[in-house]
Amino acid sequence: MKRAIPVVALSVLGLISVWRYEPSLGPTETTAAPDPAPSASAGPPGSSTVIVEGTTITTEKGPVQVRATFEGDRITAVRMLQQPNHPQTKTAVPKLVAQTLEVQSADVDTVTGATITSDAYKESLQAALDAKGG
Amino acid sequence: MGFPVSLRVDDEDVPERAADAVFAWLREVDERFSPFKPGSEVSRHGRGELEPHELSEDLVEVLGLCERYRLATGGAFDVRLPGRGFDPCAVVKGWSVQRGAQLLRAAGARRFCLNAGGDVVASGGPWRVGVRHPEHAGRLCTVLELTDGAVATSARYERGDHIIDGRTGHPATALLSMTVVAATLTEADSVATAAFAMGAEGIEWAASLAGCEVFAVVAGGQVLRTADFPVAEEPSADV
After folding, report:
1. Are strands B127-132 and A110-112 parallel, antiparallel or unpaired?
2. Counting beta carbons within 10 angstroms of the beta carbon of residue B47, is it exposed (0 to 12), middle (13 to 18) or buried (19 or more)?
3. All structural domains of chain B
4. Where is this region: Disordered (chain A) (predicted)?
5. Helix and strand tally (H, E) in chain B?
6. Residue of A nearest to B155 (CA)
7. Contact B175, B217 (CB under 8 A)
8. Are B130 and A108 in contact (CB < 8 Å)?
């Protein structure tokens, strides 16, 4: 059991550092702090709902402002009041490039295409490439 | 389903039997997985003659892939269409050719190009892979460069309206061709067929998959491709 003591002590130390840790929301911390600051408005009477509007923060992508709703000391909703109109803030939609259909001839090693039957193969580009390769 | 297979191996120290092993494997796949052979494992499974414990590991793997893409496409890709037998060819082809490429690697091949009926596994490139033009059989619509990876194309121009949108039961006709580049042919071939079955919305679906690059020709002749589709440098003057 001797060994258990330093382990327990370490665990306690670990816990203390967790307790001491205050969640940081980064640059938006000031806006979401559970401090009924001047910009806060009380919710409906009889409830502990507090709505806090953050200040507008300018980021390199544009202005950001959030509104956080607290039930007691718990955040129950966060709404973006302002957000940059920037692709990164939207859902990751694949970026597609549109172009016109070209007709090319070029030196290639092989050809991809819809599955061809053995008959069609005789006339295909791939057959020509295979013949060239010997 | 008969299709031509072309194999080019540039490593000098790879024995001929490595290539023989690839072709033997593909013949074995045809025997076991062809829905056109009444005695194949696939046909027997399709007729409900096999108990779950009688399925081979390979067939279980194929069934898993089929189900994965059926779910991912909202049923557009379906290997069990009403009125048709169980036909997992769209998955089996890419999966089996990828396995063939792994046999080559295991035998020491590093620089090779395996083309099975238009589906390509490339290793140790750069390899220049032409994409067949959907309207001109002898021409290309783009050229891509592959170092290590796979590319597959689904289209109607060779075998007609053979890809059915499982949601409607009708042939998928919104796309002229759908070419997908991925790390393995298992993925490239399945995704190309599944996206083709979905139609126009299949372009965004395939493009959103991590590791997939897409080159789609829409009916009418417009091309939509992902920004990172590996288009080869302009061909040199010897065209």
Report:
1. parallel
2. exposed
3. 5-225 (3.10.520.10)
4. 25-51
5. 6, 11
6. A114
7. yes
8. yes
Q: Which residues contact B97 (CB under 8 A, 6 or more apart)?
A: B5, B26, B114, B116, B119, B121, B185, B189
Give CA–CA dist B108/A97, Å, rounded. Answer: 39
- Secondary structure of residue A132 in the 3-state scheme: helix
Name beta bridge partners: A53.
A67
Inter-residue contact B62 to B88 (CB < 8 Å): yes
Interface confidence (ipTM) of the complex: 0.91
How many CA atoms, within 13 angstroms, populate the side-chain half-sphere of residue B35? Answer: 15
Cα B3 vs. chain centroid, distance in angstroms? 12
With beta carbons under 8 A apart, name residues in chain A contacting B158: 113-117, 120
Residue A84 · residue A61 · CB < 8 Å? yes
Contact B158 A120 (CB under 8 A): yes
Model's pTM, two decimal places?
0.73
Here the tokens at position B17 are: 């039997």
Task: Tell me which H or E stretch contains B67.
Answer: helix B57-72
pLDDT tens for residues B37-60?
A: 999 999 999 999 999 999 999 999
CA distance B111 to B124: 4
Task: Assign A14 to helix, strand or coil.
Answer: helix
Where exactly are the structural domains of chain A?
25-90
* Min Cα separation A22/chain B (Å): 36
Mark residue A72 as left, alpha or beta (left: phi above 0; alpha: psi -120 to 50; beta: remaining). Answer: left
Span A83-128, pLDDT tens digits: 766 544 444 567 899 999 999 988 999 999 987 666 777 778 888 8
Burial B67-85 (b: 16+ CB within 10 A, else e): eebbebbeebbbbeeeeee
Radius of gyration of chain B (CA): 18
* Nearest residue, CB atoms, A108 vs list B129, B155, B208: B129
Instruction: Take residue B33 and report the two structure tokens written for it.
Output: 């997985």
